[in-house]
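Forum > Structural Biology > Help requests

Title: Can anyone predict the 3D structure of Erythromycin esterase family protein?

Hi all, first post here. I have the sequence for Erythromycin esterase family protein but no way to get a structure on my laptop. I'd be grateful if someone could post the structure tokens.
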Amino acid sequence: MQRHHTTPPDINETELISLIKQWAYPLNSKADLQPLFDRIGDSSIVMLGEASHGTHEFYTWRAHITKRLIQEKGFQFIAVEGDWPDCYRLNRFIKGLDEKDKSAFKVLQAFNRWPTWMWANWEMVALADWLYEFNKSIPLNKRAGFYGLDVYSLWESMESIIRYLEKTDPASLTTALEAFRCFEPYQKEEGRGYARASQFVPELCQQEVVELLKEIQSKSVLYNSDPENVFSVEQNARIAVNAEKYYRAMIKGGPHSWNLRDRHMADTLDDLLEYHGKDAKVIVWAHNTHIGDARATDMAADGMLNLGELARIKYGEPNVVLVGFGSYKGSVIAGKNWGAPMQAWKLPDAARGSWEDLLHKAGHQNQLLLMEDFISNDTLLEHPIGHRAVGVVYNPQYEAYGNYVPSILPLRYDAFIHLDETRALHPLHVDAAAAQMPETYPFGV
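Reply #1:
Sure, ran it for you. Structure tokens for Erythromycin esterase family protein below:
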């Protein structure tokens, strides 16, 4: 999917840079984002992307936008590219419903699935503290929430179900324990061990998790506990079903596992919107590759879809605003390979002819692009240009060969925020000597 692309030969680079200079809004401060809020208008779904999972400014600018959307436009919850059980604990904390965890730092430090830095970072502590304080003066049923959309948390979701049924429905506990025991031999390697085993025994534990979901759905109307906890246990059961499918698909390669994951995120978003009521409004945080419409990239040619595309199709483009983020140079947190220790990498100058390079040449400054200003340019709509995407696994030495997604930017997003130079975010899971609040906290968030 991701290949190195410079500006296509049919595009006049000088003309494109001139076009950016003409239409881009300079971002000298966060106050300069007002055109974006005007563009959002009455939309009910705003998706805020990121070009990496390890950049300080992506988190702080998204936090600023998020707070204004909650305060000024009545957005009710945040849904992120994160695990449901971990995010649900944070949700309960910021709503003042968790008596055990006394601080956002403590809740976020418990996010221990690799890559831990995605949510266990000081930038998120600052946002969670703000949400906690904001919610104090709000009636319980109106408090801002925080939820995870992802599919990875099979074992954590199973454990959450078991804890819930132990207290609420011991009669259904046997079904949950049978499902858990089926997966237990593969827990050490998480999905990889189960994926390998499924090559020899297809549908290894499929029946067990399907039966568990049916059991919980049939009994949920009888549960008399907190309605949000009932919703949560159902969601954990759906994760068990979809994670089992995902891990089986993962071993086969191709687009199927990607599509399963993004469809799960889209379905979870649908469930959350339905749970929050007819006029629900949500802010989504996820990587650009999930929120930027896949149909405007080479992902579509590879048979891949994504969350932003599915939301536009289901809810209509006027109701969905997709906001991409990118940067030209700086530093970033990532691992050298899957499961490797996190480290701060230098983010090299963007590849020549990429969107990031062109934006840099248009001013060496932070900029906001509203895509409706560029949509009439036929040349831009016909020729994809490379757009940087850094994952949790990263090595700048090989960036030019695997970190650029050919994209028609005016169709991929509704708005794009270019931050010319960015820096690595501040993880919580560092050695004891370095485990202290950074100077940036909570300023700029």
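Residues 1-5, 432-445 have pLDDT under 50 and may be disordered. The chain has 18 helices and eleven strands.
Shout if anything looks off.
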